[in-house]
Design goal:
heterotrimer, A alpha+beta (about 325), B mainly alpha (about 550), C mainly alpha (about 220), A: about 325 residues, alpha+beta, Immunoglobulin-like, Cytochrome Bc1 Complex, Chain D, domain 2, 5-stranded mixed β-sheet, about 35% helix, disordered C terminus, C: about 220 residues, mainly alpha, Four Helix Bundle (Hemerythrin (Met), subunit A), two-stranded antiparallel sheet, 2 strands, about 75% helix, elongated, disordered N terminus
């Protein structure tokens, strides 16, 4: 649809189409403003150059009504742009229900990707076309920024928390994945490929990866190895909140606040449990900061999420 | 607004017209290094910032040379250090002090009819502190430079980077004291030392702009000072407040940094707006369009600039609702900027326009500022910012404002006030050539970067895919033109100091108080205290006459 | 009026009154700036305090309350003596009373620093110096160390400011007053120092409850 425009980047996702429209509108508006200024300036400069004999009588003395007119005009136009941009922003950064969820860890200077089935890749992300893909982003060291120009999506990946973005590719092919937050020496080479495939191709690719264990299952192993199951497990006698069906619900904390149990919340709870004591439970959970790597955390979270559907798994 | 203009002692002897100029009154090195004369301190600052302009420019030249080909020329480590030092030096050691410390220092007292700034010793100390911070940043640079980007994002800067981050951060910290001292001096001077009759609404717009910028400097700089102090502590002892491994929040650094650094962009552009507002009426020979509106716009930009900082963080992980609030505030701050552009343009209407070099620079300023402004609107629009944030689009946008507009205004001011500062006229043809070359070179350098940005080229990359080479090559070619345009004035202005034609007191037929006194001015500016009867810009294009702020009418 | 012969305004001022007035405005503007400087720190502190309420409360209980309280009293009193000195400067031709009050002010300020130094010594014994000599106490978690970062940065910067204040008062005592430049006709420099001194006092007025008292009950 936009191929005829010169120097136009690939447009390969539903997200990108929406942003394209706004961008073209803004380009046109910018051109109009620039043209107005240039034309006014040039015509005044020529018409009222010092040697011209044009009349200079009746200089405008009262200027305020002109100024009110163009103040309100610009304000009106700006508000339209604001609302348009904000509406898309809300839509871009509020992930819809996902068909598939993929975990991405940024690390100096590579992108590590883990699929729910346990398939791993580095500096590449294989996804099916026409499916809503939700990405959970984590960083092991410094701030990175996950950017796919052809999808017009970007989000910083800040160490110490998890971020979520989504996209829905509408075109197969290979597209650039970049890091746009300066992250040290080889920042420029922290790039990869987004490979958008048809559903059958994608299924074949997943199968070819030779994986032994799904991500949630790996998380379940960690859950036992780190002693989480001692309290949160099925047969525990310790008074600890149940994790079954927890993901996505509202949690009431002891200090009166309410949080949504999303990825970032689960991560915070594991690393800093004392600040997130659930109402009605004793603050006895040890903190696990420094004991778990980012990818281990993601596996644990994947496991806790997998409990969402089945009430019987946890307590 | 009550005026607090004090009565002043009339001149000592009325007949002392032969008082030597500030340049020749004393000529020992000590008399320069320990001067309290705001004009001499302005020249001292001018020497310092010119030096840093060319150091920062040298780094930029290396970067553009490296980016001419995808393979590059420099080691990645060297390239990373070059863009970091380019940013730090250009922002804190050239752009922020550029117009205030030189033309502000020189002309604020003269334009309000005072004999000096309120605190001359503080003014001199400011120069020494500036140079101290300059030595520290040069130390950081010579030892190998920092490699964090000028934004020092944590935890890269505190834990992972291995350059001289501590020294660079300390340089920025110390530099802040110089900013604060200079700004404090301007605020107090403008409040307390205006000549009789110089009411607030008779102040030239340049004075208003410097006043606005000083208020911003005073309120924003301490936050950066605390921020860099905490950063330096964290870097020094190894743990701190921005370290996520200890529960710290890396985004707090960004919030505090941009709380300063977004207003800092206005610190760079407001004085440039003031300069344009002086030059355009003078060469269009008509009053500036909407003086009151211009002052309101200046002050509202200064105030609103404090409520937009998080528009640098739309994709950084702040809450999406605060993103929306900051986007709205950003559109609001764009409104007064748009008003100013229209007012400058309409100030040409029914003028009697001559196209001397200062005017060419000022017109270039307006066009480049408009270009930076409309692309700024795109960046303020949330959804588009998500796409182009962190790419060359942003680089191009802020260079249009900070370099295109501000440096054009700086050169405009330099040419406009050169006769007053030195007593000599610059060679007009060379100057016009340099002005046009600046405009052409600048657009050639930075316009391609908008395209590169939208195509997705990330900033701060030493290499890029081969398909983007033509745009980068174009940009590098433009940069070489720009370099020539920036170097030219060094030569012909230097020449004019010795061989230029002598300038009279008021070579451009301008109305401000600074033109009442001889060129170069005597040590204490005025032989008698001016009595102000009129606002600025009383030019009449119909009869080609003008009335100075003291009320005397001249026909050209 | 022994010294007032020397008391001509500087070249940019019309009168001494204007000069003094301008100097005061300068100090007020500077203090706006200082307020924002400390404000940024206190703001960040409360941000973290809200994120880690339990850890910070636990860590705050290890501060030496009697040192902080004693210092609170010392500094408040010193502001009073400072004002008395300025009063004396405005009223008496003879600088004796003013000088006595200034000496008392310096003594109180120095006493603050001595108490602070002793408190730092106790803190070192208590192993609450991050990185250098630190031991995490139960209940503090890893965020406790952040509390102590704030503690050292906040009290340290305050102590630096107080030291500058003492130096300024000494400069008044040993230079300006000895040269007879401060008296009923012109005492703006002393007033400016006094404004600064009160500001340093006020900073402690905020730091003390925020660091020592919050969450102690």
């Amino acid at each position: 649809m936009y191929h005829w425009i010169p120097f136009w980047p690939d447009t390969a996702a539903v997200n990108a189409v929406v942003v394209n429209n706004l961008y073209i509108a803004e380009l046109a508006l910018s051109g109009l403003i620039m043209a107005t200024v240039v034309v006014m300036m040039l015509s005044f400069c020529i018409h009222y150059r010092s040697r011209s004999t044009a009349s200079r009588a009746n200089l405008v003395e009262k200027t305020w009504h002109f100024e009110i007119v163009w103040t309100s005009a610009t304000l009106g136009v700006f508000l339209i742009l604001f609302v348009w941009g904000a509406a898309i922003y809300l839509w871009l950064f509020k992930p819809p229900p996902a068909d598939e969820e993929v975990y991405v860890v940024g690390k100096q200077w590579m992108w590590k990707v883990e699929h729910p089935g346990g398939q791993r890749e580095i500096d590449a992300l294989h996804v099916p076309v026409d499916k809503t893909i939700r990405l959970v982003l984590a960083s092991e060291d410094v701030i990175h920024s996950f950017f796919v120009p052809a999808f017009r999506i970007k989000h910083d990946v800040v160490p110490g928390t998890l971020e979520t973005i989504w996209f829905k590719a509408n075109k197969t092919g290979v597209f650039k994945l970049e890091c746009t937050q300066y992250c040290g020496l080889q920042h420029a080479t922290m790039q990869g490929d987004i490979v958008v495939m048809t559903a059958p191709d994608y299924a074949r690719w997943l199968a070819e990866q030779g994986v032994n264990e799904a991500l949630a299952a790996q998380g379940a192993d960690l859950f036992r190895a780190h002693g989480c199951s001692g309290c949160h497990g099925e047969n525990s006698t310790v008074h600890a909140p149940s994790l079954a069906g927890l993901y996505g619900t509202l949690v009431h904390l002891e200090d009166g606040s309410v949080r949504i149990a999303d990825d970032a919340y689960l991560r915070d709870c594991i690393l800093n449990p004392r600040s997130f004591t659930v109402a009605g439970y004793p603050p006895v959970m040890p903190d696990f900061s420094g004991q778990l790597g980012e990818d281990e955390l993601l596996k644990l979270i994947a496991y806790i999420k997998s409990l969402a559907g089945k009430q019987e798994a946890g307590r | 607004m009550s005026t607090t203009t004090f009565g002043r002692v009339p001149a000592v002897e009325p007949g002392a017209a032969t008082e030597p100029s500030y340049l020749t009154s004393e000529n020992t090195i000590v008399s320069w290094l320990f001067t309290r004369d705001h004009k001499r301190i302005a020249l001292l600052f001018f020497v310092s910032i010119t030096f840093f302009f060319f150091v920062g420019g040298g780094a930029a030249t290396l970067m553009r040379m490296n980016l001419a080909t995808p393979e590059g020329l420099l080691q990645p480590a060297l390239y990373n250090r070059m863009f970091t030092m380019h940013g730090i030096i250009m922002v804190w050691f050239f752009l922020i002090p550029s117009i205030p410390t030189t033309f502000g220092n020189f002309f604020i007292p003269m334009m309000i009819g005072a004999r000096d700034l309120a605190f001359p010793r503080v003014n001199l100390l400011s120069w020494y502190v500036f140079n101290l911070s300059g030595f520290v940043v040069l130390y950081a640079l010579i030892m190998g430079g920092a490699d964090t980007g000028w934004t020092f994002y944590t935890p890269l800067s505190t834990v992972y980077a291995n350059g001289y981050v501590f020294a660079a951060a300390m340089a920025v910290f110390i530099n802040g004291f110089s900013s604060i001292m200079t700004a404090l001096n301007f605020v107090v001077t403008i409040h307390r030392l205006r000549a009789p009759g110089m009411t607030w609404m008779r102040l030239p717009l340049f004075v208003w702009a410097i006043y606005a910028v000083s208020v911003v400097m005073l309120t924003a700089t301490p936050v950066l000072a605390m921020d860099t102090f905490l950063l330096a502590v964290e870097r020094f002892i190894g743990i701190g407040l921005f370290d996520p491994r200890h529960g710290g929040d890396p985004l707090l650094w960004q919030h505090m940094f941009w709380f300063y650094s977004h207003p800092a962009v206005y610190i760079m552009i407001l004085p440039a707006m003031g300069v344009a507002s002086e030059i355009i009426p003078c060469y269009a020979r008509r009053p500036v369009f909407g003086y009151a509106g211009m002052t309101i716009a200046l002050m509202s930009i200064a105030i609103l600039s404090f409520f937009v900082w998080a528009h640098h963080m739309f994709v950084a992980g702040i809450s999406i609702y605060s993103g929306i609030v900051f986007s709205l505030a950003t559109f609001f701050v764009a409104v007064p900027s748009a008003i100013k552009v229209f007012n400058w343009t309409v100030s040409l209407h029914k003028g009697r326009i001559t196209f001397d070099a200062p005017m060419l620079y000022a017109l270039g300023f307006v066009l480049l500022f408009t270009m930076g402004g409309v692309t700024g609107l795109m960046l303020a629009t949330l959804a588009v910012d998500v796409d182009v944030h962190g790419t060359y689009f942003v680089i191009a946008h802020f260079h249009y404002i900070m370099v295109g507009a501000t440096v054009s205004a700086f050169f405009g001011a330099l040419h406009y006030w050169w006769p007053k500062m030195t007593g000599r006229l610059y060679p007009e043809m060379w100057a016009r050539f340099a002005a046009i070359l600046t405009y052409v070179g600048f657009n050639l350098t930075f316009f391609p970067q908008f395209v590169l940005g939208y195509l997705g080229m990330p900033r701060r990359s030493y290499t890029y895919p081969a398909e983007w080479q033509s745009w980068n090559l174009l940009s590098s070619a433009g940069a070489s033109i720009l370099a020539v345009a920036y170097l030219l004035p060094l030569f012909y202005l230097g020449w004019s100091v010795f061989w230029g034609r002598k300038a009279g007191a008021n070579p451009w037929g301008a109305t401000g108080l600074e033109w009442l006194t001889p060129s170069p001015p005597p040590k204490h500016n005025f032989e008698r205290t001016p009595a102000v009867r009129l606002g600025p810009y009383s030019y009449d294009p119909e009869s080609d006459s003008f009335v100075t702020q003291e009320g005397t009418r001249h026909v050209r | 009026m022994s010294g007032s012969a020397r008391l001509a305004p500087e070249v940019q001022y019309a009168t001494l009154e204007q000069q003094g007035d301008t100097a005061q405005l300068g100090m007020w503007v500077f203090l706006v700036n200082e307020t924002i400087f400390f404000g940024a720190l206190i703001f960040a502190y409360f941000l973290y305090r809200m994120t880690y309420p339990h850890e910070f409360a636990a860590a705050a209980r290890d501060t030496v309350l009697w040192c902080g309280s004693l210092n609170f009293v010392l500094l408040l009193t010193s502001s009073l003596t400072m004002v008395l000195a300025i009063n004396a400067a405005a009223q008496d031709e003879n600088p004796r009373r003013m000088m006595i009050w200034l000496v008392v002010t310096v003594a109180l300020g120095s006493a603050f620093l001595v108490v602070k130094g002793y408190e730092y010594y106790l803190d070192y014994q208590d192993k609450v110096v991050p990185v250098v000599h630190f031991e995490s106490k139960p209940g503090e978690g890893s965020a406790g160390e952040l509390f102590w970062m704030f503690y050292w940065v906040g009290t340290g910067l305050h102590a630096v400011h107080l030291t500058v204040g003492i130096a300024l008062v000494l400069y008044m005592l040993l230079w300006r007053i000895r040269r007879g430049e401060i008296g009923p006709t012109y005492y703006a420099p002393l007033e400016v120092v006094g404004i600064y001194w009160s500001f340093v006092d006020t900073v402690w007025l905020f730091l003390f409850p925020s660091i020592y008292l919050l969450g102690r009950s």
